[in-house]
């Protein structure tokens, strides 16, 4: 709260029991899309009409670095025509929207409120500011991809502007194979998901699967998943080699047995011939 006794202190964090603000402190944002920053405040005494309140958003603790003001001339050039308060200040709603998000829109952005006609009633909530983090799309798979078995992969992206949902598309698949959902996961943060289910074939091994997200403003980002298929265990693949091994071993054993028998037979004949020669010589 502004220090009323020291006129040279323009503002400080609003921490008293009188004026309070609640701002989501961390939000994901998408370049070229928009971001909505949930914000509310409270004050003592009776409700005040919006005409008696002036809402301002500025960068960090510098009230002169204005990104939103009813008076456009007070706004920094990079933010002109890109910011607006969505809520009604008379209803204690200071929600901010930033359109056409830029890479430099990181923040922190802080809310300030002034009571029109009361010079001493100015409050900056520099202890409750929002930081923006630029978000990218993600690809996640349920398990390893097996040839001939259903495979599921999810493409998802978080965003903070429900008026302009990102559009997700795949490099393969049809409408029957794709399921989409959009849900609020926390205050001011939504997630858009596209779930693709298909059965990989042998030709899909070492191929690429792409998911493309198109954001408000036409900017597109693509995420790639490299498919490496595994072969499922097959009884034929196990039994056939074993049978071949057993048969081979049997054949080798039979041949060995015949050779041994033939050797014994030849040896017996040779011994008999030797005995006959000995008798003849005697």
UniProtKB/TrEMBL annotation:
Span-the-membrane segments of this chain are: 238-260
Question: Which PANTHER family does this chain map to?
Answer: MYELIN-ASSOCIATED GLYCOPROTEIN-LIKE-RELATED, SI:CH211-171H4.5-RELATED
Query: What is the protein name stated in its UniProt record?
Result: Ig-like domain-containing protein
Q: Which organism is it from?
A: Oryzias melastigma
Every Ig-like domain range: 147-226
Sorted UniProt keywords: Membrane, Transmembrane, Transmembrane helix
Q: Which InterPro entries match?
A: Ig-like_dom (IPR007110), Ig-like_dom_sf (IPR036179), Ig-like_fold (IPR013783)
């Amino acid at each position: 709260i502004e220090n009323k006794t020291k006129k040279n202190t323009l503002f400080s964090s609003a921490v008293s029991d009188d004026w309070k603000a609640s701002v989501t402190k961390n939000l994901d944002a998408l370049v070229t899309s928009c971001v909505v920053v949930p914000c509310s405040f409270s004050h003592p005494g009776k409700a005040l009409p919006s005409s008696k309140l002036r809402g301002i958003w500025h960068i960090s603790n510098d009230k002169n670095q204005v990104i939103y003001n009813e008076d456009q001339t007070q706004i920094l050039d990079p933010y002109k025509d890109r910011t607006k308060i969505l809520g009604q200040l008379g209803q204690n709603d200071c929600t901010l929207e930033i359109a056409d998000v830029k890479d430099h829109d990181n923040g922190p952005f802080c809310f300030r409120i002034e009571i029109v006609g009361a010079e001493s009633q100015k409050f900056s909530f520099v202890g409750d500011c929002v930081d923006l983090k630029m978000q990218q799309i993600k690809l996640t798979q349920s398990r390893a991809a097996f040839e001939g078995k259903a495979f599921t992969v999810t493409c998802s992206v978080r965003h903070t502007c429900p008026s302009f949902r990102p559009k997700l598309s795949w490099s393969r698949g049809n409408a029957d194979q794709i399921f989409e959902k959009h849900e609020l996961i926390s205050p001011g943060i939504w997630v858009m998901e596209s779930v693709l289910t298909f059965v990989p074939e042998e030709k899909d091994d070492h191929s690429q699967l792409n998911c493309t997200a198109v954001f408000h403003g036409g900017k597109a980002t693509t995420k790639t998943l490299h498919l490496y298929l595994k072969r499922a265990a097959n009884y034929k693949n196990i039994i056939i080699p074993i049978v071949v091994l057993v048969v081979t071993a049997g054949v080798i054993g039979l041949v060995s047995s015949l050779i041994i028998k033939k050797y014994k037979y030849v040896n017996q004949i040779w011994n008999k011939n030797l005995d006959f020669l000995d008798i003849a010589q005697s």
